[in-house]
Design goal:
The chain is built from five helices and 13 strands. The protein is an alpha+beta fold.
Length: 269
């Protein structure tokens, strides 16, 4: 765990972030809005936390969680295993199988990706969130192989998906969707680079494909990366999200703790 990040923070757009200890200050903030502040809420800490995630915020309209790597957001035709969606449904039903309480999927993270997920608690809230999702700001941390040149930039391509569910860049505008990934190098070791990523569009596997095609696949990416990659997990973390609350209209920002795994890869210095 990074120094000074023993607890998750729930923050609100409005004033300065609480102080972050050097030397990780510039890295872990991932350029959150400079006027975001610690949100004071009564229900930040729960006696019971759902398995595989930590609840960062909960109200009658939304639940914001920090998902662990290895947990699916929602089941697929090919994989019906335990999911964040199912676990949160159990959580809001409080063990009562007859309860009509449920959560609704707003967006997804890959199974291997850790970090922030937003769920709605009603169909109406879900529709409002998705209608305004193009205004959502999503920032990630990623560790990739090699050193990038230039150290910051924007990767743009048309992304398409084939029958085997493999995503790739294409020049055919009838097949691909325009995708933009903004990156900045935060730290380098001899073999790895820590990146801050602003996801301007939210295509499937976008970050993984763009960086792999640039010659710098994510650490632990066995699908798009190096065949001999022996790292235990994908080094991709949804660090923060900023969006408009579906009912109050308030602009909110939430930030998740940086995984210890990233510290082991790039160091604490």
């Amino acid at each position: 765990m990074l120094p000074g990040f023993a607890n998750h923070k729930k923050i609100r757009y409005g004033s300065a972030l609480p102080p972050i200890p050097a030397p990780w200050r510039q890295i872990v903030l991932a350029r959150l809005p400079p006027d975001a502040a610690a949100m004071k809420a009564k229900n930040t800490v729960k006696k019971h936390q759902p398995s595989g995630m930590v609840i960062l915020h909960e109200d009658r309209d939304i639940i914001v969680v920090d998902k662990a790597s290895g947990l699916l957001t929602i089941g697929t035709d090919r994989d019906k295993s335990r999911t964040a969606h199912a676990i949160l449904n159990d959580y809001v039903r409080k063990g009562n199988p007859r309860s009509k309480n449920r959560v609704f999927i707003v967006h997804r993270l890959d199974r291997e990706t850790s970090g922030i997920l937003v769920f709605a608690r009603s169909e109406e809230a879900k529709q409002i969130l998705q209608l305004n999702w193009d205004q959502t700001e999503k920032r990630y941390l990623a560790v990739v192989h090699g050193r990038l040149t230039p150290r910051e930039g924007t990767i743009t391509s048309l992304l398409a998906e084939n029958a085997a569910h493999h995503v790739y860049s294409t020049t055919d505008a009838t097949k691909g969707k325009l995708s933009h990934t903004v990156y900045r190098v935060l730290r380098e070791t001899r073999e790895l680079s820590l990146l801050e990523i602003d996801l301007l569009t939210g295509r499937k596997h976008q970050i993984r494909v763009h960086l792999a095609e640039k010659g710098h696949p994510l650490v632990g990416d066995r699908r798009y990366g190096r065949g001999n990659d022996t790292y235990p997990r994908l080094a991709l973390h949804a660090r923060s999200i900023t969006f408009q609350h579906p009912c109050s209209g308030q602009r909110l920002t939430f930030a998740a703790e940086v995984p210890e795994y990233f510290t082991r890869l790039v160091g604490r210095k």
